[in-house]
Write a structure and sequence with these properties.
By secondary structure, this protein is of the alpha+beta class. 17% of the residues lie in helices and 43% in strands. It is globular and about 35 Å long.
């Protein structure tokens, strides 16, 4: 039996009134892949499709010094501030998040989960090689795009 909701959904989709939700696999394909290289070791991350992530990608390739911060994250200064158009006011950081901290204008890679922070914009996720970033002290890293959506 077809419900009234199913009929309205079908009409809305066929008329273009309701957008089709992209599958998880489709969303994954649209994410831009980047590589963070430290002493010949590679970390792979996927950037999301936010304004801040696209603006970050426009800076690449880029060499930065990642420094320990609060035993929770590695941070690096960026050559300029990124766009935060459409970004939420802040976010909770999760281990593996690649983020932009707007108040300081820096890149932050979270090694541990962290509380909600105003001005923190998640721009992507580390997919592999996280252990490379756990090294204590400052590390020089080269960041470049390795894949396109």
């Amino acid at each position: 039996m077809v419900t009234r909701s199913a009929i309205f959904l079908a009409i809305g989709l066929s008329c273009g009134l309701l957008p089709l939700a992209a599958s998880h696999a489709e969303q994954e394909r649209r994410m831009l892949k980047i590589q963070i290289e430290v002493d010949g070791n590679r970390v792979i991350a996927a950037l999301d499709n936010s304004a801040a992530a696209r603006d970050f990608a426009s800076l690449l390739p880029l060499t930065v010094t990642l420094e320990d911060y609060a035993s929770t994250e590695k941070i690096a200064d960026l050559p300029r501030r990124l766009s935060t158009l459409g970004a939420p006011a802040g976010s909770d950081a999760r281990q593996g998040d690649l983020s932009y901290y707007a108040p300081w204008g820096n890149l932050a890679i979270f090694l541990k989960d962290f509380k909600y922070s105003e001005g923190l914009v998640t721009i992507g996720r580390i997919e592999s090689g996280m252990d490379v970033l756990r090294r204590k002290g400052a590390i020089k890293a080269s960041i470049r795009i390795v894949g396109t959506p």
